Amino acid sequence: MSINDVIQHYEKSLNASDTGSILKLYGADPIFMPQHAPAQVGRDQVRSAYEHVFDNIKLDIRFKVYETEEFGDLAYVRTSSEGKTTIRANDETVNEGNNELFVFRKESGDWKIHRYIFSTSNPR
Q: Is the pTM of this model over 0.90?
């Protein structure tokens, strides 16, 4: 799977609140660094973090890719995302906007998310 394919599948999986599909995009030893939270290290912590996210919000976002750099079996991608977030506790919909940095590693011929960090560009 190409890097752009992974980003597109990640967007679709986030919008579907599909933790299982997201985990398929991550590599063997992932780290997810969500804003305002400790780094989530390893597949079990990453799975739990996404389950927590999807228990609390519903996303409807789109990614824009600004740069992709490959270095052998490693790559990074700088993106932004924007759209809407519905807060499940009160059914309130708010604007969403983030800057993201993905680090990819090639595993068995496919690009996988190795590290992922984001921060808001649209604070509430």
A: yes
Pairwise CA distance, residues 83 & 105, whole Å? 28
Cα(107)–Cα(43) distance, rounded to whole angstroms?
15
Average pLDDT score over residue span 9-17? 98
**Range of the structural domain that residue 63 is part of:** 3-106
Per-residue HEC secondary structure of 21-49 comes to HHHHHEEEEEEEECCCCCCEECHHHHHHH
What is the model's pLDDT at position 111?
98
For residue 49, tell me if it sits in a domain. yes
Share of the chain above pLDDT 90, in %: 95
Q: Is the residue at 82 inside a domain?
A: yes
